[in-house]
Amino acid sequence: MGVLFITALIITADQISKSLIKSTMTLYDVIPVIPGYFYLTYIINEGMAFGIDLPFGIGTLFFSGVSLIITCFLVWILWCERNNNLLMRVSLALILGGAIGNLIDRIMSCIPNSSYTGVVDFIDIRWGVHKWYIFNIADSAVTVGIILMLFYSFLFKPKVQPTHSIV
């Protein structure tokens, strides 16, 4: 299970980067890194991907539960794939690291008197007037993991030939 090092690396980088953002910026601060293209913008996402949230304030608790279930499922899949293709295991390790990184923020935001109020997002990519959703390292790891998994599934996964019997 050497790929779990990748998971640990993603979780560590994600939590350190979020901690640095929280300690050096105030909410909604914007720092241009490459003006017109790349900014550090500190926001809190209380929902899930693309800011999707649920009404009545149940979003954080619901998404925490769903994230925990998905994380357990990913651990099980990674265990089942432990002796299979390295590319598939790396993709699962990236997805798992990203899921755990954001799960930590969600769980911490459920604790009373915690400084967490949701998932910290800060990577802000723009192209002139076009803007993408603000995300974090965990989100990036999940995206790269899914792309690698699709790459493996469509290009490398052995094709199973149907067996035909002549009757």
Describe this structure as you would to a colleague.
By secondary structure, the protein is an alpha+beta fold. It has a domain at 39-48 and 58-154. Helix content is 53%, strand content 14%. It contains 4 helices and 4 strands; from the N terminus they run αββααββα. A 4-stranded antiparallel sheet has the order 1-2-3-4. A hairpin with a 2-residue loop joins strand 3 and strand 4 (130-131). The longest helix has 25 residues, at 86-110.
List the helices and strands and how they pair.
Layout: H1 4-24, E1 30-34, E2 38-45, H2 59-80, H3 86-110, E3 119-127, E4 130-131, H4 137-156
Antiparallel strand pairs: 1-2, 2-3, 3-4
Helix pairs in contact: 1-3, 2-3, 3-4
Model regions low in confidence, pLDDT < 50 over at least 5 residues: none
DSSP summary, beta strand count: 4
Strand order of the largest sheet: 1-2-3-4
Number of contiguous helices: 4
Q: What's the order of the H and E elements?
A: HEEHHEEH
The helix/strand class is alpha+beta
**Main sheet properties:** 4 strands, antiparallel
End-to-end separation: 46 Å
Measured as a percent range, the helix fraction is: 40-55%
* Mean pLDDT figure: 86
Brief descriptors of the model:
167 residues, alpha+beta, four-stranded antiparallel β-sheet
Write a compact overview of the structure shown:
The chain has 167 residues and is an alpha+beta fold.
